[in-house]
Amino acid sequence: MAIVIVGAGIGGLTTALSLHRAGFRDIAVYERADALRPLGVGINLLPHAVRELTELGLGERVERLGAAPGTLAYYNRYGQQIWSEPRGLDAGYRWPQLSVHRGRFQMELLAAVRERLGADVVRTGHRLVGVHDGVARFATAAGEVSVAADLIVGADGIHSALRRQRQPDEGEPIWNGLTLWRGTARAPGFLDGRTMIMAGDAEQKFVAYPIGPGVINVVAERRGPGFAGPNADWNRTVDPAPVVALFADWRFPWLDVPALLAAADEILEYPMVDRDPIDTWTHGNTTLLGDAAHPMYPNGSNGASQAILDARTLAFHLATAPTVRAALDAYAADRRPATTALVLSNRRQGPEQVMVLARERAPDGFAHIHDVIPPDELTEIATGYKKAAGFLPADLNERASLTPTVFSGVLP
């Protein structure tokens, strides 16, 4: 069975590796960029995603790329703790949570694809023009190229050409009025050196976590006019000084926020955008995956993890269903309701809702958080998000593997 994957990001490359692990061999990945480079800043891979990478034989390789946080803690804009919980192995998972540089992680996936599937499997400089009757057409420097396939997977991101063909009236991504500034800084650790912190509320927020020895990923966020709109360049470098100034008073006993922002190598500006969930990902022999299917706000650190789960789930059903159509239906039934719920939850701040509530109920700070938010309410928010995202420790640890052991007639 010939399979074409559009996009060589995290979702597309993990799909290639997952399909190969499931027994498929006629796979090609087409990437619009002329060359793949380690772009971006830090991301988090949650334990459910690390489980899938481990079952693909990549666990140790990815662990070497970054850091494994042991704690996630939320604070208000005065540095007062709202909620803290263990993460990864410290929380009882069988797999860690990993904080890595997105570009380095993508390059590791690319290396694994070339090792296992062949050096020419990923073909750069191919921009998808359209798909008709099982044939994908790509624009290249040498002219248009047509590729016939039994299955075409659109893993081409939030500006997916395949999604645009299927949803021609959708328009641009939806901006919620928040702008994010991201970077990495070489700086000493804070707290115990293994904590991911989020401080602030729905109007302004700061996030920091280590992604390697002496390297801290930083994210600043602010709502308001005059910042990036939905069409901003996702890799636009900006002057850090105005961003640092927004956080001039955010100096906590355990962290100097403006100093850490000022130490970043560069600051990249992003609009916080997503898209409305759609009713179907599948049309004929095509389907969507990752940000092409369900772009979501980064609340809860779930974007890359959900793309990895998509990839593994799609490969599992293709290997075990009797037909391609049955596999695509099963994939969508598993993944579309779950990711729709996450998109909508993230619009309500996801697990970061605790910071919003603290601001609403105690805008000038508090003597003790339980005077503001009862402990049961805090626990319910944290647990509810893990359940929706598919990484409650007991459920994940006991869930059946997505590596197929019984194969169907779909395989060649």
From TrEMBL:
Keywords: Monooxygenase, Oxidoreductase. The keyword Oxidoreductase applies. The keyword Oxidoreductase applies. It comes from the Bacteria. Pfam families: FAD_binding_3. Residues 3-166, 278-343 form the FAD-binding domain. InterPro entries: FAD-bd, FAD-dep_Monooxygenase_BioMet, FAD/NAD-bd_sf. This is 2-polyprenyl-6-methoxyphenol hydroxylase-like FAD-dependent oxidoreductase. It comes from Micromonospora echinospora.
